[in-house]
Specification:
6 helices; single chain; 185 residues
Length: 185
């Protein structure tokens, strides 16, 4: 029963976080600001992911599990939420780069080439790496976006789950009975 509600809850909150990530990206896109390697958008996305994990795990712990959650279950809930959110964001990036603005992909390629030159790679190495990088399709670009968001979400879930783990129900007004084998205390 708890796994069914875990998936349902994670899908709901993951969908909400994904929608908010897409909305944030569209806001930057409509204003004509780059959605690639934009530190402001990256900061906003990370903050939205953390808030989504926080509120999602808190609601799952308090309403579904009655205030008791293990570290593993809190971590799993956070990871599932971010996996769903990242999937929606990757679909958005794929549709955006495939059908509406392929310039986003070219902008990412140009940014990478500029970064390689600034780091100090010589022209031969830059040309070799860029010959591989120019073969990136919108699907591969979307998967890299999914992987980046999911990896950040795993890291943030590790941290948030640490603060949410509860071995006993703090909402119950009963004293803890150390001789009782109940796992709810």
């Amino acid at each position: 029963m708890y796994y069914k509600t875990l998936f349902k809850h994670s899908f709901l909150f993951g969908s909400l976080v994904g929608a908010v990530l897409i909305l944030a990206s569209l806001t930057f896109y409509w204003k004509g600001v780059s959605v690639n390697y934009n530190p402001t958008l990256l900061f906003i996305n990370r903050g939205l992911i953390i808030l989504g994990i926080y509120f999602g795990v808190r609601k799952y712990r308090d309403e579904v599990l009655f205030g008791v959650i293990s570290y593993g279950r809190a971590f799993a809930a956070g990871v599932l939420m971010v996996a769903v959110a990242s999937s929606f964001y990757a679909m958005y990036i794929y549709i955006l780069t495939s059908y509406f603005d392929s310039g986003i992909l070219q902008e990412a390629i140009d940014f990478t080439e500029k970064g390689l030159v600034e780091i100090g790679y010589d022209d031969e190495q830059v040309e070799l790496l860029m010959s591989l990088y120019r073969k990136i399709t919108p699907g591969i670009f979307a998967m890299s976006q999914w992987f980046g968001k999911a990896l950040a979400g795993v890291f943030f879930s590790l941290i948030v789950a640490f603060f949410f783990k509860q071995k006993r129900n703090l909402f119950a007004n009963r004293p803890v009975d150390k001789f009782n084998d109940s796992k709810n205390q």
